[in-house]
Each structure stands twice: as structure tokens, then as C-alpha cells.
Amino acid sequence: MCFASAARCCFKKMQIVRGCDEKRNVLVYMVYSDRLIEGSPKNSTSTVPIMPWGATDVPKCAEWIEK
Q1: Is the Cβ–Cβ distance between 21 and 11 less than 8 Å?
Q2: How far is 20 from 23, CA to CA, in rounded Å?
Q3: Sorting pLDDT into bands at 50, 70 and 90, what band is 51?
């Protein structure tokens, strides 16, 4: 786990985890609830590609992770 954050809303606790897929140079976000809601946990996964956007050097996803 490289980055974690928690938010409390309506008695539901959410966790946010950010990781790095160095092979594909993307940030990976996973959001999940650590409480069961209607019998199943709620979760979501998202990816964000790191693009050069006009820069000559493409930044690496590891540079975006807090240490």
C-alpha cells in the first residue's frame, strides 16, 4: 500500500488505496468499504495512465506515489 485514506460518511467507512503498475506506467486506485452493506462489500477499481502531455520525458508512475 503506497497511499491510504479513510472517510466516514453515514456510518460507512471507505478506504482508498493507490498503487503503481510500473510495467504499464499507470496509477491504480482501489476504493472499498470495510463494512458489509446488504450482505456484500462495496468496491471499485480505477486506473489513470501517466501521459507525457507534450513533455519530452514521460514521468514514471512511481514518481506520483507518496513515500
Answers
A1: no
A2: 9
A3: confident
